[in-house]
Structure formats: C-alpha cells, structure tokens
Amino acid sequence: MRQARGAGLMNRKKCTLGSMKTHETTIMKYADAEHRGDVVALWREVFDYPVEYNLPEFVIDRKIEHDELFFVAVRQGRVMGTIMAGYDGHRGWIYSLAVSPACRKQGVGSMLLESAMLALEQRGCFKVNLQILEENRAVHRFYEANGFAVEKRLSMGRKIG
Q1: Which of 93, 96, 115, 140 could form a disulfide with 86, with the two C-beta atoms 3.0–4.6 Å apart?
Q2: Do residues 83 and 108 touch, judged by C-beta distance below 8 A?
Q3: How far is 8 from 31, CA to CA, in rounded Å?
Q4: Nearest-angstrom CA–CA distance, 103 and 117
Q5: Digitized pLDDT (tens) for each residue of the chain, 161 residues in all
Q6: What are the angstrom distances between the C-alpha of 39 and each of 17, 45, 56, 78?
C-alpha cells in the first residue's frame, strides 16, 4: 500500500493555461467554506443537472455528511477540478470528475483520479468502478488512458423515496 503524501496535500503538478505562465496545481481535500462556490460554478459549467437530486449544492451537502472522499484541484486559490470517490467495503466508485475547460489535457484530471485512487487504496479498496455516458467518447478515452477498461455490465437505477 502506498503512503500518504502529506496532510491535505495529495499531489502537485505544473499546469500551463494557453499563453499564461506555468502555475502549480495542488490536489487537496475539499473544504466547504473555502471551495463550495468554485465547485458549484464548475459543476454548473461542465455537467448537465436536469434533476433536483443532482443539483451541485445538494450533492455537496450529502457528500460531506457521509465521508471525506472529495478532492479539488486548486491553482492560485481557485478550484479548477473536482473528484468524489466512494467505498462501501467491497468496491470503490469514482464520481464527479470535472476539470475546467481551460485546464483540460494538462494532467489535472489524471492527478485528481490518482489522488482518489490512493485514498481508496488506503481504505483497503482493491477495485474501482465508475459510470460514464456511453456517448461521451472523450471521457471514455480519458479513463482508458488511465488504466480503466469497459466491463460487460448493465447499469440499472431506480429512484427511491
């Protein structure tokens, strides 16, 4: 099992944004008071939330009540990426990996994924699953490039309550 890289600090990498200078990107645990506004804005930009139970504020509230497997990529004090993970003692799950369009294809998503995977591994997780929309080919390629493979499973869901 790999060792943690430091309290609050999971990983560092340089991020170049077009003509901007190179800036350090830090992956850290989500801190509600510090990160909520940026995360809500990012998720509204990159995800389609057509139903109430997927609204960013609701998802964040539920996640931070449950566990701390929620990480952000920060550059110059601004959130530029997020990832949430879950572990039920049997399988790990990856959720809400989002990267600002300005920072894509620069390793930020892979850094977030690596940090979440490390946190899951530290909890004893041996296998991680995730779900993506079948038509989202760019995300499919991203996860394949990060070692994931399509498994022949049928995903089903049911609303409760």
Answers
A1: 93
A2: no
A3: 10
A4: 21
A5: 333 333 334 444 444 333 233 368 999 999 999 999 999 999 999 997 778 888 999 999 999 999 999 999 999 999 999 999 999 999 999 999 999 999 999 999 999 999 999 999 999 999 999 999 889 999 999 999 999 999 998 889 998 88
A6: 19, 10, 8, 9
Could you tell me if 60 and 79 are in contact, meaning their C-beta atoms sit under 8 angstroms apart?
A: no
State the amino acid at position 71 in one-letter form: F
pTM of the model: 0.84
Q: What is the DSSP code (8-state) at residue 125?
A: -
> For residue 134, with 0-12 CB atoms within 10 Å meaning exposed, 13-18 middle and 19 or more buried, which class applies?
exposed
What is the rounded CA–CA span in Å between residue 84 and residue 69? 6
Place of tokens 């701390």: 68
Question: Tokens 């899951």 identify what position?
Answer: 120
